[in-house]
């Protein structure tokens, strides 16, 4: 049997566009095409292409003027960059438990974590399934907090019909090769609160007003604020644009794979050997991840067994509150029962554009023969 990889990045055959480029550094004509695609399809007010989602999260911390001691509420069940971006500015992530049905931040646990120092709530739409945004936005309004959506995995997913990334003051996307839409490595900052638009461009351009210079609005460009080199090269943007044009087809295929897994694994859930992912009524996901919660502490043994059968499956986040640096730089704002449980029992199955029905069957058959 041929090996079934966990991920196989979707590739562009359109290398001609890259050899035709006139500009190779960031913020050229192809970047503008990508931004227009994001504005049209994700309904954000403006967008900036970045070299990673991590960079876009760092821009969020700068835009919010995060200072030493400021607190930012977020889940512990997330990628390190969600927290590290704020820690870099002296901020303190305050972790809140997740809802075990979605692996997303539990809105009912947020209020108890708010203090006078709280500046923002960062939500993570895990597996491209939306967080329950209405109660989160309500709490944020009551306490005058900013909302940031870490939508790294959530391109083209929706909440009550609204695209993810269009709801918070700011949002971030990842175009890393592990994501539905990628360019090797890249990301985007989506801006919905207009007060951040002008400064975000300065932060992207190394702290200069180069954007105004490019628009002939100043005679020379100069250093005006904090900043870094956050942009995405036109080479990556050209690859990205070719994938964005295919984004709806890619998403459709992934949802089809998700639904095939879901059907084939139904019986194991009925027998209480696994729990399949559940999608709340308010959410439409993008087929980013198909995961199982494996019962009876069998997850690690199942990974080993599938590896022997040449099927590559993986666990996911190690909770940040329990990491060596997390213990120094963060605090917990609720119990972490669900976070720890999900981290110990969640298993991600192979999921990529090129996965065949035969691959899916091989995978589910092997899971059944191990668990039953
Ligand atoms: C929730 C989340 N946020 C941020 C990131 C970082 O993305 P990037 O690799 O584009 O910096 C990831 C990466 O997987 C992620 O899963």
Structural description of this entry:
By secondary structure, this protein is of the alpha/beta class. The protein has helices at residues 15-19, 29-42, 53-63, 80-87, 133-142, 197-204, 210-214, 234-244, 247-264, 266-270, 299-308, 324-329, 337-345, 357-371; strands at 46-50, 71-75, 92-96, 98-99, 104-105, 118-124, 146-150, 158-159, 162-163, 170-174, 187-191, 274-275, 283-284, 291-294, 331-332, 346-348. The longest helix is centred in the C-terminal third of the chain and has 18 residues, at 247-264. Strand 2 (71-75), helix 4 (80-87) and strand 3 (92-96) form a beta-alpha-beta unit. Helix 2 (29-42) runs parallel beside helix 8 (234-244), helix 3 (53-63) packs parallel to helix 4 and helix 9 packs parallel to helix 14. It binds pyridoxal-5'-phosphate.
């Amino acid at each position: 049997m041929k090996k079934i990889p966990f991920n196989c990045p979707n590739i562009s055959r359109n290398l001609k566009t890259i050899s035709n480029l006139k500009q190779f550094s960031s913020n050229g004509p192809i970047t503008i095409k990508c931004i227009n695609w994001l504005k049209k399809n994700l309904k954000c007010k403006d967008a900036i292409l970045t070299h990673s989602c991590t960079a876009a999260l760092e821009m969020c911390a700068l835009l919010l003027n995060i200072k030493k001691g400021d607190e930012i509420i977020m889940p512990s069940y997330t990628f390190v960059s969600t927290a590290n971006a704020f820690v870099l500015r002296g901020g303190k992530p305050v972790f809140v438990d997740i809802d075990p049905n979605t692996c997303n931040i539990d809105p009912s646990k947020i209020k108890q974590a708010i203090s006078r120092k709280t500046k923002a709530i960062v939500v993570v739409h895990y597996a491209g399934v939306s967080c329950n945004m209405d109660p989160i936005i309500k709490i944020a309004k009551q306490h005058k907090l900013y909302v940031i959506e870490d939508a790294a995995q959530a391109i083209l997913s929706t909440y009550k019909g609204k695209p993810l990334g269009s709801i918070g003051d700011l949002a971030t996307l990842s175009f890393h090769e592990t994501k539905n839409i990628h360019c090797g490595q890249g990301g985007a900052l989506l801006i919905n609160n207009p007060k951040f638009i002008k400064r975000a461009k300065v932060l992207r351009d190394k702290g200069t007003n180069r954007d105004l210079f490019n628009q002939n609005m100043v005679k020379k460009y100069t250093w005006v604020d904090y900043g870094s080199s956050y942009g995405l090269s036109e080479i990556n943007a050209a690859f990205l644009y070719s994938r964005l044009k295919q984004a709806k087809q890619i998403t459709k295929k992934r949802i089809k794979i998700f639904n095939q897994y879901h059907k084939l694994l139904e019986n194991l859930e009925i027998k209480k050997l696994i729990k399949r992912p559940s999608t709340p009524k308010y959410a439409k996901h993008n087929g980013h991840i198909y995961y199982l919660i494996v019962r009876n502490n069998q997850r690690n043994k199942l990974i080993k067994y599938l590896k022997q059968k040449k099927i590559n499956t993986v666990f996911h986040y190690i909770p940040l509150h329990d990491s060596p640096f997390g213990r120094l730089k963060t605090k917990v704002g609720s119990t972490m029962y669900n976070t720890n449980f999900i981290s110990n029992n969640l298993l991600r199955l192979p999921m990529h554009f090129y996965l065949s029905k035969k691959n899916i069957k091989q995978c589910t058959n092997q899971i059944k023969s191990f668990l039953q």
